[in-house]
Amino acid sequence: MRAKTEEQIAAEEAWYETEKVWLVHKDGFSLASQLKSEELSLPEGKVRVKLDHDGAILDVDEDDVEKANAPSCDRLEDLASLVYLNESSVLHTVRQRYGASLLHTYAGPSLLVLSPRGAPAVYSEKVMHMFKGCRREDMAPHIYAVAQTAYRAMLMSRQDQSIVLLGSSGSGKTTSFQHLVQYLATIAGTSGSKVFSVEKWQALSTLLEAFGNSPTIMNGSATRFSQILSLDFDQAGQVASASIQTMLLEKLRVARRPANEATFNVFYYLLACGDGTLRTELHLNHLAENNVFGIVPLAKPEEKQKAAQQFSKLQTAMKVLAISPEEQKACWLILASIYHLGAAGATKAGRKQFARHEWAQKAAYLLGCSLEELSSAIFKHQLKGGTLQRSTSFRQGPEESGLGEGTKLSALECLEGMASGLYSELFTLLISLVNRALKSSQHSLCSMMIVDTPGFQNPEWGGSARGASFEELCHNYAQDRLHRLCHECTFLQELERYKEENIELAFDDLEPATDDSVAAVDQASHQSLVRSLAHADEARGLLWLLEEEALVPGATEDSLLDRLFSYYGPQEGDKKGQSPLLRSSKPRHFLLGHSHGTNWVEYNVAGWLNYTKQNPATQNAARLLQDSQKKIISNLFLGRAGSTTVLSGSIAGLEGGSQLALRRATSMRKTFTTGMAAVKKKALCIQIKLQVDALIDTIKRSKMHFVHCFLPVAEGWPGEPRSASSRRVSSSSELDLPPGDPCEAGLLQLDVPLLRAQLRGSRLLDALRMYRQGYPDHMVFSEFRRRFDVLAPHLTKKHGRNYIVVDEKRAVEELLESLDLEKSSCCMGLSRVFFRAGTLARLEEQRDEQTSRHLTLFQAACRGYLTRQHFKKRKIQDLAIRCVQKNIKKNKGVKDWPWWKLFTTVRPLIQVQLSEEQIRNRDEEIQQLRSKLEKVEKERNELRLNSDRLETRISELTSELTDERNTGESASQLLDAETAERLRAEKEMKELQTQYDALKKQMEVMEMEVMEARLIRATEINGDVDDGDAGGEWRLKYERAVREVDFTRKRLQQELEDKMEVEQQSRRQLERRLGDLQADSDESQRALQQLKKKCQRLTAELQDTKLHLEGQQVRNHELEKKQRRFDSELSQAHEETQRERLQREKLQREKDMLLAEAFSLKQQLEEKDMDIAGFTQKVVSLEAELQDISSQESKDEASLAKVKKQLRDLEAKVKDQEEELDEQAGSIQMLEQAKLRLEMEMERMRQTHSKEMESRDEEVEEARQSCQKKLKQMEVQLEEEYEDKQKALREKRELESKLSTLSDQVNQRDLESEKRLRKDLKRTKALLADAQIMLDHLKNNAPSKREIAQLKNQLEESEFTCAAAVKARKAMEAEMEDLHVQIDDIAKAKTALEEQLSRLQREKNEIQNRLEEDQEDMNELMKKHKAAVAQASRDMAQMNDLQAQLEESNKEKQELQEKLQALQSQVEFLEQSMVDKSLVSRQEAKIRELETRLEFEKTQVKRLESLANRLKENMEKLTEERDQRAAAENREKEQNKRLQRQLRDTKEEMSELARKEAEASRKKHELEMDLESLEAANQSLQADLKLAFKRIGDLQAAIEDEMESDENEDLINSEGDSDVDSELEDRVDGVKSWLSKNKGPSKAASDDGSLKSSSPTSHWKSLPPDPSDDEHDPVDSTSRPRFSHNYLSDSDTEAKMTETNA
Length: 1702
Hints:
By secondary structure, the protein is an alpha+beta fold. The chain is built from 39 helices and 22 strands. A hairpin with a 2-residue loop joins strand 1 and strand 2. Helix 6 packs across helix 9, helix 15 packs parallel to helix 26 and helix 17 packs antiparallel against helix 18. It starts with 5 loop residues before the first helix and ends with a helix.
């Protein structure tokens, strides 16, 4: 923001002092100055203003005056930045910007666009790149800025975004839509496959404009359908795929449209086609003179030429979208067939048929069917479904379902239905082909949806007097829904968020939103599933009323309007404009107020009921195309026959290969299959609501951005809405005021009242006030702290880098305090922090600056590090060069050595062989890895394809399942509601019936009483006639009573009239009083409204002033921050200046000291020069003396020659020592370099060790996380196994319970049979005892003793066998109980062992994982240890070499010392011999140099020794770590062995348990086998028992016969034994009676009983059978033992002998 100059500030102050205002009038607004009201005497509610353009002074209402902003606000980019926010200020700013060709303006969170007249050059590609990568705060208002903001938000948050275009028809929504998509396609780009490019988008735009646009009275190319273009983006922010969904297509426009409007553009393009071959094939060479659809070719030549060019462009676009020539040809065939159907026409001459059959024949040929099939599809099936609606209303009973066939469809309506159906199918096919060209299988992360719908349609704005159609109502309804969504997002949701976060904001001046127009169209009944007479008066919208009236016989549009006005029309007492509906003066017309009553549209409802009825021809269109004989047509539509791309013929384009497209399709399907929609989704009127619901639900799932497109001027704009209440200026409305202030050229093109109406309808001021007064930017605490923590580094230093935040809110408060923000610019909520507009942008800018500063420092550090590394590398290279030079020198000395030649010859051969083997191995490894990689890549691609295919299938199945489930739920809800309604109706019916019965009885009673009264009166009259004299007297009395009654009646009537007159007078007085009160109430209401408006205006001005004050406070706060920053910088500058001054003084002192030292050194140098000159003179004198001596003393020549020779030897030795010293210097330098290299190596090892430790920590963390994941998976698997095990145990328990129940049943049956057998045994014993007594008595004469003995033996055997069976059964029961106990114990032990085994297995797996990790760690440590050992060995070798070199140097030092002593002695000798002293001084200097070198070597040796000690310590530490690792590994191995032993023992226990279980199962099986054998034995025993009872019966018969014979003998014999015989007879009678009684029950007991026995059936012995039984039961006789037959023969013979004796 640029600083204002003093002149600007002064001008603003003068502006605000004059109190400039806007005076609102009917033509717009004018600038004026408000005069001071203190000096004036004006009535209340009036103000006096002075117009600026002519100086006129007017007294106007306060409501007509609005505050004006300073001229600096005329072209603000954001309307929310205005100081005073009101309608006039907003319109003035928009008008000023429009005059300066600035078409876009920010309106808080939204964008406001004025439709340009012409094509401005602000949409070029150069302008696109200016917005690329920018933030919203850095961009000027533009349609590209909205696209860039949405794109940046999508990349930052990874959330779906949507851009919604709102406005009237012709306001430029489709143009802005195209610019948005072109910007995204250009800036974002696409992946390598070019799924969605600019060329494809231009082709798609051309295709949609041709097939979906048509000229209207408001727009030359108006969009006649709604569309959602979805762009799916990948991880890199590029377009991965795209798709388009369309809805609300005006398919009936093909055949029928409003007057002075045209059909879709593609028909005119096709008729103007210049391709002769195509025209011939489509039979378009000769066009029809008239067409019932109104499709006629263009008349002007230039229009024809332009249409032909557009057709060529359309063909090119279809080619770009990969639509094949065959598919294009199919489209042209369908379009031409529609044209020919319009030329054919329809008539009714006896039956419905074509008017011109030759044109119908052409249409049938193009569609690939016969004329009869075409005629049948259009005309022959209207009764099948022509007037029946596909959805059934519950008001209609089953017998009334045929009443909907009221008016049949006309022939022309059938033809129009076929044309609209064909075009709808063609449009849907084109959308699917477009989606096929735009889809891709690439993975998409998020998407961006751009919504374009037809704008508000108002024929009056286009200058037409006709009423709006049903299609225009649908488009206006969709716009109302989108405007309501915008208001909810920008206002209501913000309020709800503030309430949830406990943020107090006052918005009392804002009026509540009313959606009466939306409710009047789509409001559903609360019980819409079940409609009955009880709920007939419940308010329902127009769409629902249309659906209901279409089913009512005889319903008309008038009845429809009556019902609609009864629900939403103006009621008594309502004020003007409160109702969303108003009656029109025209018949069958009504007015509906859209955009909150600012856009009143007159609708004509004629023919709307016919529209809601299903046209069979429309439904037959799809079948006709699928059954076409032309393969190019049938193949296209047969492939779509079973697909789910169209929902009830409403939404097209639900295809798509990406997951996001499938998710959007599922969301739209859910809208059509949830609740009431599942039942009503096939109703034509309800489809409109469901399509808009699907659109709203789809974009609600994303972050929405709104663009308001305003229409600047309209031809037929009538000013204020007719019949609507709007604000008027009382005193200034009659004045002749100009439309506005004089301003730049082009401003007068704007229609200010039209703009004001659009501004009020969009409720932009509410959103702007919310944006200004509220906190539009907000962030969650944790996100804000993480994002802006970089702005407060001292907090990070205070808490540390690894500080864990416990209280996020407290941390954010500390961060905000450290950021030093103005208190009014932010607010703390419960879960997030809120900011005023622009505050977060400033924080982002500060963060970017801080980040760039940190990045700059990081780059500098990186560059410094790289430079240092390069310097080290150069040093190493220098060392390497020196090493190479030394090696070359050494090589020169050994190159002629024969062994060296042999070594150099043999070594390359060995190396070559090794290298070849290595290369071969490497090649093999590379080939293997390449093959593995290809295999893995192939498998991965296959798996990816399978995964995509399965995911697609799963999503499809899921959607189908959801549809079915929702349908089922809806049907169940429907059934429940119907059942409840039926029950309620039945209850009401019963109550009414009871009331009716009671009333009927009461009526009968009353009739009886009346009859009785009449009879009594008649008898009285007859009695009076019979009585003579008495009758006259009674007659007189009767007449007198009648006269009295008449008089009384007249008197009462007069009194009643008097009372009525008094009441009427009082009523008139009350009415007058009520009228006065009503007038007073209206006056007070008007005053209240005025006060309320004034309060709202004052509140708005107060809020504006408050916001202005807050802005000034924020600006002051920023200035204070800048001042503090400037003061701190100034103090720092002062400190730096002071520091520099002190430094300068210090340097001056050092300079003086250096000058003094230089002067002293200069003096010393002069002294040295003087000394040198003296020494030179001495040398000269000594040389002279030496010459004198050599000349004088020749005898000393020999000694001199000897001294010279010694001197030469010493010089040679000195040279050798110099060379050795040079070598020592080189070795010292090499040692230094080695030391440097060791230090570098140590540093590198330390860094690598730290990196390895960090990577090891990361690996440990990853391993921990993976272990946790594996542990969770194992826990899930264990839970599943535990559940399976529990299930198996439950099954086992059930089996055991069944087995126990069976055994109990068997035991019960055994006990019952045992009881019965015992009873039988007792009775048999008693019988046998009696028989024994009888036999003992008759033993002398008994002929059958042997038989009785045998019977006794058999009975004893049976008793024994029965006792044995009882014992065996008890033993078996005990054994079974023991086995059950053992099985339970085994099962418990097994479960315990299985749990222990699973636990041990888990522990084993964990230990194995730990062992593997420890083994890996050990391997890495061993590698490091080996590397360290090798390095240490190398270091030790180097140390040994250095020690050897040190010893050699010590030896050389000793030798040099000895030589030095010798030289010193020689020097002393030479000094004594007067030798040259200069040579001696040089030798001394060399000796001193050697001593310094020796000292340097000593220091180097000490440093190397310390380095060696450190290396030894590191070696010891590594050895200790290795020992510790080895000990830990040994412990882990021991634990592993112990666990393995435990696991082995557990396995052995498990095997033992399994063996025991097998043994138990085997015993169980054996017991079952024994049980079966016992059952068989029981059956055989039962059979034997039957035979025994039969034998007893035979025995009874024989005894009876014998007793008869004995009686005869007793009669002959003496009577001495009479007592005994009588006793015997009594016993025999008892036996007989017992046998007769127990014969049947014993038989039944023998049949039902069962016995158990552990012994086979051979232990049982059978009773002897009876011959009669042998005859009747041959099977039993064959199964008996053989000795029974012998016994029978003996018994027969004895019986015969007995008979003979008798």
